[in-house]
RNA sequence: CGGGGUGUAGCGCAGUUGGCUAGCGCGCCACGUUCGGGACGUGGAGGCCGUGUGUUCGAGUCACAUCACCCCGACCA
């Protein structure tokens, strides 16, 4: 199957439908736009959760959980927020079913209508701020630094496996602070947490920047984001951190008594990443043989494949591999011995490659006689004969090297596909081939909209670390103080 | 919600201008031979042809309706 996938730059849906699904990550569910994440795919999510959760805690956050259902009235309290989400809400109107009068199946019991409809959370700002109101009375109660791991539902027009499912899993941090400064620092801190997670764990280089007002989160004063480049040159927003100002505090009347005894509205942030990260992982690293997972997020880091004929050889080889397995496990490496007897080793090789296991160790009678094993690395598909003595150290180094190499590949790819362009005509032509474009923009939503309509490219972000550079907007020629990143995006 | 496409075995598909007992590949089960890169042979199990209503002597095939899914837009993490 993998061999048929050759046009990865053009057709990710083929990956998802024909390759990734067969790689046991996910399958479509009967429910509109939702997906069943299979155990292997979920294991990746658990890895992501584990790493992020630790980073959140290291930055002083704690986990909590808030209700799935939000009373409709909560949504209407913050005007921009409701406008942003109103079009994509699942609404609970009734609480009971009954047997259909015509005897066929069940229908909604019309007498069980809810007094107030409940919204299945598309995000939890409203219900959380309704709760924070009761938690925050004094400056001594601040800051509140909560995160929740949850599912949310957004009834999008169009869904896409991993990238935009109707229901998705995510993490949402919601913090409350006494000062504007503190909240802004938190917003910045968390986008940097995301960026370092992407870099260090996902082997995914990202750009940090600010969204333009039209791309901002509904209800935010500023949205910081990390943007990654996929292998087809399209951009993927991989995480966001919002500075919400006092908008939600005002909407939910959350005031605190300051040291000076004055009542003040609190300042807030929210930030999140979702199962979209799994999609990012797939689209950034995979090749025609299937997934390529960074060792630090791979559910299995090493697979052992015995090569043998008959039961005698199997037990000999198994005995040969067993100490290797133990040695690796002792070093904290996740290992699986694939001793299935119903498929041949060639099949196993192909299957584990498709699943993206970073390192494969195979051994047969020949290796046993020589005291070696065959070590294959997923990122380059290279194979090498390695002595068993010291294999644990060898594998540890190899895993580190693979992690670094995958990042490096992605980074080089992004650099090769990032262009500085000044002419709009040139931009219109070259955007067709994908990539990030550093261009001058006059800062108006009108120009942004015009570019989007004419080229399908959006401003992914105004990079935070870019050096100022006076120039002229590529469309209007009006002055611009710095370049922004344009790209077509998922 | 617009435009296009697809619904036939667990998966991927074929099925002619309507015709007799609905096929193929993969997978599955049994036995045997194999086993250092996706093995092969023989035998076997598995179908209300998405759903409904029509047309017809006869419908997987035609008509209408309906539902679901996929792709391209609009919307979005």
Keywords:
490 residues, alpha+beta, Rossmann fold, Translation Initiation Factor IF3, 14 helices, 27 strands, RNA-binding
The level of helicity is 25-40%
Radius of gyration: 26 Å
The residue-averaged pLDDT reads 90
Proportion of residues in β-strands: 25-35%
CATH architecture of the largest domain: 2-Layer Sandwich
Tally of domains: 3
* Content-based structural category: alpha+beta
**Whole-Å distance between the termini?**
25 Å
**Poorly predicted parts:** 1-14
Query: What is the global morphology?
Result: globular
The CATH class of the largest domain turns out to be Alpha Beta
The CATH fourth-level homologous superfamily of the largest domain: Bira Bifunctional Protein, Domain 2
Largest sheet: 11 strands, mixed
> How many strand elements?
27
Determine the number of helices (DSSP H or I, runs of at least 4 residues): 14
